[in-house]
Amino acid sequence: MSEDTSPETTGAYHWIGKNVTKPDALEKALGATEYVGDMVVPGMLHAKILWAGAPHGVIRNIDTKDAARVPGVAAVLTASDVPGTNRYGLAVPDQRALADDKVRSAGDALALVAAEDEEAAEEAVAKIKVDLEPLRPILTYEDALDPMAPAIHEGGNVFQHTTVRKGDLEKGIEESDVIVENAYHTHRMDHVPMEPEAGLAYVDPSGVLNILVGTQYPYRDRRQIAPALDLAMNKVRVIQAPIGGGFGRKDDITAEIHVGLLALKTRRPVRLVYTREESLIANTKRHPMAMNFRTGARKDGLLTFLDGDIYGDTGAGVSLGAYVIKKAGIHATGPYDVPNIRVDTYTLYTNNLVSGAMRGFGVMQAAVAHESQMDQLAHRLGMSPLEFRIKNCLKPGLASSTGQLMNEGCGIEATLQRIKDYMSAHDLRFNRPHA
Amino acid sequence: MRDFDLLEPKTIPEACGMLAAGEDVRPVSGGTALLILVKQGLLRPRSLVNLKKLEGANAIRRDAGGAVRIEAMATIHEVETSQVVREHLPVLAEACHQVANIRIRHLATIGGNLAHGDHQSDPPGVLVALGAEVELSGAGGTRALKLADFLLGTYETALEPGEMVTAVTVPPVEGRLVGGYLKFTTGSSEERPCAGITALVRLDGDRPVEARLAVGAVASRPLLLCEADPAEAALEAMADRAAEEIDPIPDLRGSAEYKRHLVRVLGRRAMAAAWAEAGS
Amino acid sequence: MATRKGLGIGSMYYGIGYGFSRADIGSAEIEMAEDGTTTVYSGACDMGQGVMTVVTQVAAEELGIEPDQIRVVAADTGSTPDAGPTSGSRATFVQGVAVQNAAQELRGQILDMASRMLECPKENLHVRRGEVCETGTDRPLVSVGKVAHQLHFHGRRAAAWGWHDNTTQDVDPETSQGDAYATYGWATQLAEVEVDTETGRIRLTKLVSATDAGKAINPVAVEGQIEGGATMGLGYALYEQHILENGVPRTASLAFYLVPTSMDVPDIECEIVEVPDPRGPFGAKGVAEPATIPTTPAILNAIYDAIGIRITETPITPERVFFAIQEARARGEFEED
Predict the structure, then answer these.
(1) ipTM, 2 decimals?
(2) Nearest to C197 by CA among C335, C71, C332
(3) Is C258 on the interface with A (CB under 8 A)?
(4) pTM to 2 decimal places
(5) B42 in contact with chain A, both atoms CB, cutoff 8 A
(6) What topology is assigned to A37-134+192-281 in CATH?
(7) CB within 8 Å of chain C, chain A residues 11-50
């Protein structure tokens, strides 16, 4: 453990800075914690989802007759059974609880089944017949930027364009002694929380729809569930169940509306637990991004400008993508003082799986680009990558890419210094730049 | 997952009788491969024949002639930790130690591994390098087959309907075998092999009399190259020949071109290590 | 075997919280029962990272009671107030202040009542280890439970509400200029890698993570975030790619989508840096995301340090590295052994 020398801890605090044991640690270590997948309620039905499995198409018909006849099946529901708006979404309500007019991604839910056991529900799902007229899928950045390509949602495939402008870019370029330019590509990643998505819903005797769910924010869930199912908000109660990780994907609606709808329709408790495979297919992922960066510095080692474009694939729904990509844009400089900036970001709809919040939230991707640029500039200048960063990092009194003045909470230099100390204490040296 | 009947025979003939009932009756031992197929709906067995309770079906013995016989229900972990295997077939112990993770190794059996016919696995290549034979039993009796002839392709074996693998036997080695197994993964450490290279040198006294190079997990079945009276200079050529002859299956772990290159590089490394061990 | 070692660093800053005029709020209610045991109704979801423990420590510190006297009821629209989401590395930073505010108000109620009970000026009293004490001597005068009992007895709830609004104005729509976030997280990581130049395989052999926690309220929990974050960063850098083919997942199984195992994670040195931030509870700020962002760039830079080749695409698969070496060779730019 690190040595703690702050006066607050050595001095007055009783509990701050102490390793108080987490109250839930023992029951989790013993395997005693009941997650939604462990919960069993008398009379409970089991839910299963029919996933689209194709990226883009017009839904001509969904035939549920054979599915409804499977013994043990209590309900087979499609979009026309949803009493409310059927919509949700964290930035804009562009996602459907159940796909209605079109399929927009392979992870769209088409139909829901509730049955006495999972096997019957699975069998019913297999008997649902879908008549889908395929449409040309929009899968690449280029497709999404093409104004002639079919629009996935009304309003076109470029959902958002943001701009960062600071200083005088031309002047920054002129002042540069070295300029580094590169294109970076980052990939789609899944959160893989230990617990896949899961929810349990029941209507209590007072008519309130109760939903136990592994979520990151029950109040926002309630705000989205009520209109989607045409309920008054005070008729919806969302309780965070013990959760096996979320990492951002459980910011979004996951199982809530589906179990809620089935519980309303069947008036019985309904539990939905995704398989790992379903979790990988559905809900949000980390945004793939394409980033073109040009960065300059002077011979004395000071950064001069950043000129960049960031394209983010938010898939078939925005979720939090507009904020993720905007955040990538304003963090594109990294923690450094860059006087002249032009960065444009584009949030693009595609027919890929929806991208949303994931630990790192756009900065994960931006850092791949800005830190690679920093190293290349350092090497071109013959400077140690560490010293180059210390020289350029934000310090109290300097301003970020958005012109925000740094103050006492600015810790980047302290982290760089800590690494420097570690390297010298352990006699670690970079190979490059060569002496 | 659909319900199925679990049948629990006590003897191999009894098990064979049950398996003869039809294609939807499947044998199960560790279940590490089969249950995934069942869960994914790729297999929908009416009955599963549990082979785990067969008497003595996990024994590992060396006979007077020096052959090592591993009954099919021996788990990968049992093979890996068997004194007989460690002493007489250390390369097999080494390869089995690298299969998946400890939880899988405690469940999966050597017989199930071979019967599954999955090319992306560690044991088949090593056992082919060791010249192993499999024993197959069915309602009609028992037969033996060279493992190299048993493995026909991805998920394809010479098993006839109703037959099961009951043992794998490694013939006695004339002289002494040295060398090892080199596993290469492109992802995390518990991933299936992208390439599994077995390099062995057989010694008569101190004299190398044979070199063997087996490539597993790259093509649909293991490739085995043997060279009599090898000289050091011939070892690299063996690896190069393996790279030329192999027919790699491109997948998420790598393109055919990359895998062919891996066979060359890893083949050379493994042969060099085996040769060094032979010389020391 | 042709392996080369390299060292690389990655740094980052990360706006803590929501920004963009999005509601960034915390709120909590604290109630003390007649025996002095206390319940915090905190709307913040604990994801396993430990915000429940953090609010317990904050409440214990402010109330002068032991953490084991505190129970947290969390994240339920039926029983807890709205505390915003647990995301954006904001839970400790925002909800910690809300709980601090609630606890300070409850402490005031206790001291007011104790002052009346003891006929002693409030200024001369403080709470320590569950006792109202005389300031200066720390002499215990009356237990908080007895004071809470008096509050209940007189119909004056021993309960308080605390909130905190961390919402920041959106940046300018044309230039993105403005104070985007209330504060920022800071981190630098050092990665040591081994590159097998013949196969392209990368092994992460060491990772040092210097992460600014402002003030580590629970150092072991911060280390948990740092180690977990670095492991997730390692997965992003080297293994975890969700591949779609024509929009359809090809890696929708853990047999194909590979996460790091304990065998793949090297020694992670947790260097907790503490640059106190006056806006957070006791100077603390979030570390969840800062702990994961620098790993991939540190690995990319370490690969360059090892072999002089710049990889610009993730994940850094062996095949990608191998062909990058081949291309550099073809250009005569690869430094041969």
Answers:
(1) 0.97
(2) C335
(3) no
(4) 0.97
(5) no
(6) Aldehyde Oxidoreductase; domain 3 (3.90.1170)
(7) 13-24, 28
